[in-house]
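Q&A log
Question type: sequence-to-structure
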Amino acid sequence: MQSNVLAEVIVSSTTEFIAEVYRDQVPPAFGTWVQVETEEGHTLLGLVSHVEVTSRAPNRQAVALGKTKAELRAEYPQIFELLQTTFRAQVIAHTDTNRRLRQTLPPLPAGIHDFVHACAPDHLLALGQPYDFLRTLVRNPDPTVPVDDLLVAVLAQIYEAHGGRHGGSKELIHAGRALSRLMNDDHERLHSILRRVAR
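Response status: OK
Response body:
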C-alpha cells in the first residue's frame, strides 16, 4: 500500500463513495477534494460532504466515561479499536483515459477497496472555468448536507489553490459569476457564500 493513502472505498456508486479512514491517518475535512485511481485508468475526483466516527460493533454505542483521551488510552486502549471513521464523497469530476479532466460523472464507479488519496494540486488548479461541477453541487446536492456550506468550502480551496490573496480573487470572481447564474441571481445568497470564502 502507498504511504499517502488516506482511506479505502467500502461503498461505491457513480455519484458518490464512502471510504473508511485508516487508523494512522487524519480524515479529510468537510469540503475537501479527494481522488481515487481506478483499474480502468480513470481518476475520480470527489468532494467530502460528510465525515462520521462510529462504533464498529453496531449494537455497542459509545457512552460518556468522564475521562480525557489520554486517560482513556492509558486505561481502556481497546475503546479506540472499536471506533471507525468514514467519510462520504460526492463524485464531481474525473479524468478520462487520456488524462483530460471532465467536470461530469465518470462512466464507472470507484471499485470497492480502491485507495483514496488527497486531491493532487494540479487537479485543483484544473477545476476552473466553466465551473460545470458547480451545477452538480447546486442542482443535485447531497440531501443531508447544507449545500451553501459545502460551496464555501469548495470555493475556499480553489481560492487558495490559485494563490489566495495573491491571485485567487480573479478565479473567485469567475466562480461567483457561474454561481450567480445557477442561483437565478439570488444575490443575497451568493454574497453570503463569497463573504465566507475570502475572509
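Response note: Residues 15 and 116 are 16 Å apart (CA to CA).
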